[in-house]
Amino acid sequence: MKRLLLSIFTMIALTVSAQEVVSGFRFGYLSYAAALQAMPEYAIVQKKMADLRQQFQAETLRVEDEFNRKYEEFLEGQREFPKTILQKRQTELQELMERNIKFKENSQEELSNTEKNLMAPLKIRLIETIGKIGRDRGYAFIVDTDNQALPFINPAMGDDVTQLVQNALK
Questions:
Q1: Shortest CA distance to 137 belongs to which of 167, 166, 160, 169?
Q2: Neighbours of 21 (CB within 10 A)
């Protein structure tokens, strides 16, 4: 009987302790994308990326025009070309097309790497700012509400810190 009473009292004590911990539990939440986009440096990165994309698009258009011109010349003269010249021109066109495809792939990779490199300092600064606000306000954690990962957040237990983070980053 003593064991049963001791077990019941222990369970009650643990339940009360757990409720006290939960009632004191606080967390923050924010839109990471909104905070990132509010940074003044974000607009600079986006401008640099737009300029770089435009340069790659201009070069892609130039090489496509070159290919199209050579292809038209090939079509116009293919009936008159001797077999050796015809094969040489076909090989040239094939190589040009392969180089153009490789250029497009390399361009996409370079754009992606450049964006990662330009965004890295912004993301580090954002994470540091979020951490500082979390520590200063006594949060257990701060969660990102983007991508519908959290369909429900009880506002009585958590605080939207998006504006705080945006203000701290300016």
A1: 160
A2: 9
